[in-house]
Amino acid sequence: MTVAPRTLTPRDANLIILPAKYAADFRALCARNPVPCPLLGMTEPGNPMVPEHLAKDCDIRTDAPAYNVYKEGKLVATKSDILDEWQDDSVGALVGCSFSFEAALIAGGLTPRQIEISRNVPMYKTMVPLAAAGVFTGHMVVSMRPYPPSAIERVRDLTRPFVRAHGEPVAWGAAGAAALGIDDLKGQRPDFGGVSAVHEGEVPVYWGCGVTPQLVVMDSKLPEVVMGHAPGHMLILDMRDEEVCA
Amino acid sequence: MTVAPRTLTPRDANLIILPAKYAADFRALCARNPVPCPLLGMTEPGNPMVPEHLAKDCDIRTDAPAYNVYKEGKLVATKSDILDEWQDDSVGALVGCSFSFEAALIAGGLTPRQIEISRNVPMYKTMVPLAAAGVFTGHMVVSMRPYPPSAIERVRDLTRPFVRAHGEPVAWGAAGAAALGIDDLKGQRPDFGGVSAVHEGEVPVYWGCGVTPQLVVMDSKLPEVVMGHAPGHMLILDMRDEEVCA
Q: Where are the transmembrane segments (chains A, B) (predicted)?
């Protein structure tokens, strides 16, 4: 099993900012659904600095390239910083991202298709219900990368160590797609992200996706302002592999 | 939120005994699916003693009331001890049980129906796929207890702290049953356990169930001998509430 060398590496993270009163429920959502919602850490209420072990001098109000601001589940603004939206009780949640394991796939000669064709990874909202947690519930979102069946065990081995970045695939192939409620084996109709190109002799392989908790929070239609990184504009942390891998 | 007092309490645990070579995959199965598979602990290969913090002087070969022995997923024997089946590389996995939170429901005036009618809890195999982990995959099993909709938030609050005993319900009501793929709202056709009695004005409430990992291991049809407690004859641990609750 190949594990990336244990050094400090820039890693994308999903960012969600909530009122502190929802922090315990969000933490429980992640604890109960760790594959789609791998919680890397949370900030203290009102303190915008990322915990030191995840990144040094990282201010979640300014250090993502772009932010979306939501109210009652609706996008109300996109901003380059959220200094004026920040509240005394704001809490930031940092959720792992599959980009962390893609370097291992590339190093293993199994470059994800969407990187080869310079697109965003295709993502699907599944019919798999999350384990409910307080005010939060919803369905798992997955990302999809096509591989030949002969490569699947190697793909599983390469991504398995990244336990706080979704780890090994949740399902694959036609049976996996059916179990997830996805009827798009060729990657042509994703719910989010880019259209893929599943070649002859390949099958879709599905991983838990960090869009899951964002969608859950949006769908919960909280009356208070909720913020997140704008799609594709994630927060970059400086994390040791130990923080991401088993 | 009511939490049971933090004292040493006898607690039922599900027991699964595997060859050591499957221990890492089983541990990953539990880490990736903690709601149906809350791993309390594992024994060292070849050492039949339960870790001290879970129970003192507890030998997993002799201290459950009855054992089932499986080969290639088939039941081959039921025994009162497994001294003669034990191998140098046998590993025991201890998985939390919903019995742990039922005392809290009773104390809260919300006695589970199956206790009132002296039956086993009804259990269902759902269509919710588990996140695959090495050789192990399968579907979530849930237990069901009926409650009036007005009691559900209280039921959720009472069981939420028991994070290593399935915690709060995963889903409830007609929508929850549909999401899980269960078409038996009245509790008359469970896949395992006893028939329930869902009264007028009540809805089914579903929790993750520790039968899940047992079913996964049986369904994986490992060629080696696998053992478990016989249904209803669990291992009793002496666990502090801290070991079970958040």
A: none
